[in-house]
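Data card: per-record layout.
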Amino acid sequence: MSHIGRMRSAAQPKDLGAVEFEGLERLRVSECNGELLEVDPKTEFWVLRCGYDYFQGHTFISHADPSANRIRQGGQL
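The structure for this 77-residue chain is written out next.
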């Protein structure tokens, strides 16, 4: 499967701008029905995906590393 094909879900990913670490839990609860939220770094953005089902799960784009502030502050991920 190609790199681009893996990123696509049933619909095009929704661009959320810059998602901070604290926003991941809100996204997981509100958009992923409490499922696991996978964060997949790409070259210029981060793919946020509900669960592991690439075709049925919701997919989002963040233009900031959601864990960057957490790492700088010495917090655990």
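Known properties of this structure: The beta strands are 14-15, 37-41, 46-50, 59-62. The helical segments are 3-7, 21-31, 68-72.

See the next section for split statistics.
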